[in-house]
Amino acid sequence: MTSRDSYHIPVMLKETLDSFLIDKNGNYLDCTLGGGGHAKAILEIISDKGTLLGVDRDKEAIEQNASLLERYKNFTVANISFANVMRLDSIVFGLKFDGILMDLGVSSHQIDDPKRGFSYMNSGDLDMRMNDEDELSAYIVVNNYTEEQLKEIFYKYGEEKKSRYIARNICNEREESPIKTTKELSDIIGRSVPYKNRIKTLSRIFQAIRIEVNNELGEIEDFLKVSLKILKKHGRVAIMSYHSLEDRIVKRFINEMATGCTCPTDFPKCICGKEPIVKKITKKPIIATEEEIKENPRARSAKLRVFELI
Ligand SMILES: C[S@@+](CC[C@H](N)C(=O)[O-])C[C@H]1O[C@@H](n2cnc3c(N)ncnc32)[C@H](O)[C@@H]1O
């Protein structure tokens, strides 16, 4: 087992806990357990009447939390994707939460381990699956998607302007032989753009493939709807996102759920009957301090938004 900090340093630890941990005797759900940095801090705060359920779709993250599981009897884990939590027995039988945490994206451990194939920095097999039992891998996306499909995901999930050109180059290269490693893919992308844009383009294309492989945006949309069914009244959800595509989904969801009547302003009375379901706790997203960013550059892009069920 890796040490918790080398697995992943938790981002905005104090800010997240302050924002959603409101009752020490409450039930909490950490949807993105990772190295357990946030989970450990939650367990240290809640009483033994409180509970924490930790969820991660990655088996390695679950294994990484074995020592916390041994130490805390009020801690349980589930190896499942968060959009599927309604399938868990405890939830089927009525468990509801006072607070839910989503710390989105990948852990440093997943990025740093070359055999997971998430990074253009180290060469590894093209994989990028958070759950190694999922069928779709980066290899399948890169080698089997049509040029049009590749262009579409690079544009939609990577916001990459040269999507079409990069997609075409990938398709030309794979005619010779399949593209098997992150290094082979990085070289093709690197040859498609001027040297000075190389790193930004690599991050955008790798991010796009990762989002596609793990259906990351669909998972967030589905879970946000689920969260309304499993929160207690006044229960809170804290969501930390790391890029604009994630944050946009979260922001829109909160705005929509926090809005009441949507009738045109010149209607004499409301006919839509829409009531707000949630209250915004953060009017603007909370961001990390300069001090934290210096110590942990990953915190730079983090945005924390919190809402409460009315
Ligand atoms: C940023 S890390 C979380 C780090 C954690 N807060 C900590 O302090 O160590 C994100 C984790 O969420 C997991 N994850 C991402 N999407 C998921 C999903 N849809 N369902 C379950 N787990 C997911 C990843 O496997 C990864 O371990």
Strands in their spatial order, largest beta sheet: 3-2-1-4-5-7-6
Kindly report the name of the CATH homologous superfamily of the largest domain: Vaccinia Virus protein VP39
- Taking pLDDT < 50 over at least 5 consecutive residues as the criterion, the unreliable ranges are none
Distance between the termini: 41 Å
Overall description:
The chain has 15 helices and 7 strands. The protein is 45% helix and 14% strand. The model has no long low-confidence stretch (mean pLDDT 95). A 7-stranded mixed beta sheet has the order 3-2-1-4-5-7-6, with helices on both faces. The longest helix is centred in the middle third of the chain and has 16 residues. The protein folds into 2 domains: 198 residues, Rossmann fold (3-Layer(aba) Sandwich); 79 residues, Putative methyltransferase TM0872, insert domain (DNA polymerase, domain 1), CATH 1.10.150.170. It is an alpha/beta fold and 310 residues long. The site of S-adenosylmethionine has 22 residues, from helix 3 and strand 2.
Salient structural properties:
2 domains; 15 helices; Rossmann fold; alpha/beta; seven-stranded mixed beta sheet; DNA polymerase, domain 1
